[in-house]
Amino acid sequence: MHTVEIRNITKTFGDVIAVNDLSLNVPQGSIYGFIGPNGAGKTTTLRMIMSIFYPDSGTISVFGEQLHGACTDRIGYLPEERGLYRKMKVRELLQFYGELKNGLDVKQEVDRWLTKLDLSDWGDKKVDALSKGMSQKVQFIATVVSRPALIILDEPFTGLDPVNADLIRETVLELQSQGTTVIFSTHDMSVAERMCDFIFMIHRGRKVLDGTLGDIQGQYGSDTLRVRIEDGAPVLQKLEGVEKVANFGRLQELRLTRGYDPQQVLAAMMTRTRIASFEVAKPSLHDIFIRIARPETEEESHVESA
Amino acid sequence: MWKVLKLVRREYRASVKTKGFIIGLCLAPVIMSGSLIAMVLFRGKVDTADKRIAVVDRSGVAAEVVLASAETRNAEVVFDKVRGKKVKPAYHIEIAAPDDTDPAAQRLALSDRVRSRDLHAFVEIGPGVLAPQDDPDAARITYHAENAAIDEVRGWLSGQINGRLRYLRLTSAGVDESEVGEVLTWLPVESMGLASRDEDTGQVKEAQHSSEMEAVLVPIFTLFLMFLMVMMGAMPLLNAVMEEKTQRIAEVILGSVRPFQFMLGKILGGVAVSLTGLSVYAILGVIVASRMGFTDKIPLHTLPWIYAYAVLMIFMLGGVLAALGAVCNDAKDAQNLTFPAIIPIMIPMFLLVPIIEAPTSAFATGLSLFPPFTPMLMLLRMSAHPGIPLWQPWVGLLGVSLFAMLAVWAGGRIFRVAILMQGQPPKLGLLLRWAIRG
């Protein structure tokens, strides 16, 4: 059973094709991560799932029904930028947003969430008085307070300190464990790797990746070497069999030419420097993202600082 | 529909539960009727400094009378006879012998004395004033002062000099001096309403005096009331929608409701705010009028029409303003679009006087049937004497209803497209395209 089924949707704005012939299935109870460069079509896709935009062609089904507005009552939506009435009190605002979804009384639920996210002392304060992180948490509560079966989070961790980011992350995982389907977009690849059951990448309006992290990494094979060396990245310049070197300071990540034996590269490195550690690995999501989003720069920069 | 009502409730509470609304409710009529109130408060607060006026009488027949009249006036009206307080300036007349050799030099000398505050003004009476038909140039009477056109002394002098001249003309024509007073008696034409028949007794009821309040103040009050309703309920929509768009609140709301529901909620919120204000003013107006004994002067029959037209006008303008708010990207855009948006309420304000003077003219009727102007102009005509045929407000109501529906429909199409569009500057062509194509 899929919570969201997208079939061949296309959306244009004037001459710009924002989403091009996209199809996607989001299984019930899963966490589905949307990644992609800025302007790739992530937010447009999320807005179409929310029925805020309508596709020019193709269909979107949510909970097995094609969207005509009403299904959005079971979807919680956290937009990329915060949208809160600054002059309203936090508790009143959350009740308004919650009740606007399905008309049910959410007073108790609001209080529960304010306590859960350490905002109970701020319920009677105006939104104006909140910090950016607090506003983000209030926006998150507004998204989940109506107990939606599907929540869509557009960049949910932006502006949060590590403590609050962990709090929201744990809350999202808790909601998933209760059966809620979660779709979220992020630019943080490590979060996507750790949290998502499925990852979908859109680039220039087209789907370029879709599947589990293992499936996606499997498409690229074990073409990555992670090494720690004594003399740093400069000694890895123009190493035979290496397409690209990502320099993380204390760690270097090498992308091998397809079909090249890692042992040969190791032997070549040992002639130039001492090796502290050596690991043959699948490419990280970050690396895959870069390979898709910036393929042209590979030619320009052999050693790249990450 | 319940979602729209939730939005209406929030809009209404956000507007009404503020100090600004209460203060605005109290201050708006004060500001709007500020000039009238100022006139009442400052009535009689005149400059009581004495005024010296030189009279150059080339006819030789009027100066002495002006001097005598001024002394009589000074004795009678300058001081309040009960309190003994000076309430008006005394006029001191200085008779200046005419300089026939160089009159221009004499005018310059007198003008310099006015400039140096030695004189308030001087008046020059032509030599031929007794026979103005023979030589109009010689019959001129000129008044020279720094603010001659609006100086009340000029009016007083005109009355005294012309009274003397008419007296002299009549006596020289052979009218007996004892009869001149009656000949010159001026009778005012009283303004009266129409006689009617009492439906209970069948007797004819005499016409009542037609007061300025009925003729002018009631229509002006009605027009201002509509203006206030629009300012209270419709105008804030432009900025409110613009803020919701720029602060990304619209995107959150649109996650729960459709764009048209969102817009409708905002317009109905504006209607509710306006009706609250209207009811407060209507109730207070009736209470104040009944306390002051003016109940019969208030055209209560127009009250339901005011409510109906206020609701339709806010729908009509609200649809347009919400759409304009949706296309704005910042406060500057909103500022630029405010002026064209308020044309339907400004033009009726400019047409106030000609329409009160002739409310049943073809000009007034035609304009009041043009839907954007109908709410304000039809009510203005209805509250002005002698009133208008009953079919006209009904036809106007139908026209405004259709136009309001069109405005909300077109506004909704623009709103839907523009509310999430960032960075697109508002252009007329774009608005029309969105309104037509959606």
Keyword list:
heterodimer; A: alpha/beta; Rossmann fold; Alpha-Beta Plaits; five-stranded mixed beta sheet; 10 helices; 32% helix; B: 438 residues; alpha/beta; four-stranded mixed beta sheet; 19 helices
Can you tell me about this structure?
The complex is a heterodimer of chains A (306) and B (438). Chain A has 306 residues and is an alpha/beta fold. Chain A has two domains: 2-211, P-loop containing nucleotide triphosphate hydrolases (Rossmann fold), CATH 3.40.50.300; 221-305, Alpha-Beta Plaits, CATH 3.30.70. Chain A has helices at residues 42-49, 90-102, 107-116, 132-144, 162-177, 189-195, 213-220, 262-270, 285-293, 297-300; strands at residues 2-13, 16-27, 31-35, 57-62, 65-66, 75-78, 150-154, 181-185, 198-203, 206-211, 224-229, 242-247, 252-256, 275-281, 303-305. In chain A, helix 2 (90-102) runs parallel beside helix 4. The longest helix of chain A has 16 residues, at 162-177. Chain A is globular, with a radius of gyration of 22 Å. The model of chain A is unreliable at 296-302 (pLDDT under 50). By secondary structure, chain B is α/β, with parallel strands linked by helices. Chain B is 62% helix and 6% strand. Chain B has helices spanning 2-16, 19-32, 34-41, 63-77, 103-115, 152-172, 177-183, 212-233, 235-246, 249-253, 259-291, 303-327, 331-341, 343-350, 352-357, 362-368, 374-383, 391-418, 428-437; strands at 51-57, 91-96, 121-125, 141-145, 196-197, 204-205. In chain B, the strands form two sheets. A four-stranded mixed β-sheet of chain B has the order 2-1-3-4, sandwiched between helices. A two-stranded antiparallel sheet of chain B has the order 5-6. In chain B, helix 16 packs across helix 17. The longest helix of chain B has 33 residues, at 259-291. The mean pLDDT of chain B is 85.
